[in-house]
Design brief:
4 helices; alpha+beta; 7-stranded mixed sheet; globular; about 160 residues
Length: about 160
Amino acid sequence: MSSVAPRPLLFTRCEASHLDEVMPIMASAFSPNFGEAWTRSQCAGILPMAGVALFLARDVASEAAQGFSLLRTVADEAELLLVAVAPHAQRRGVGRALIDHFISHSRQQGASRLHLEVRDGNGAFGLYRAAGFEIAGRRRDYYRGSTGNFDALTLVHASNES
């Protein structure tokens, strides 16, 4: 748990024109060693698809981007595709706020099943567990980074309906 009180955040739904704010966070939050970050063209390519949403978490006072989430909702399922927090905002509740926003937004969109994938060994794993996600599976050698291949853990939200 962070010792710094979280600052109020505003969640803004974004479009491809906001990628100039997203990509620096992406570059600073994901190490190239693990192959987790998406390119600008990958982000721009998925944004027009049905059910895809990109959100920026902004500091209410300064309006500065603190982090982002990229998600997709299809029928009754929602997937958290990416979540990242700017280094200056890490350990201040922004990551948890983005995950909680994903959960509430997905439920509002009618999703009863929520899931995500995370690299085995990623420090955010504990954060996902604290938010109610549980391991449902493993994809061997899913991430291909500069230092080798890494497994992905598939997580589902504990409140998923059967």
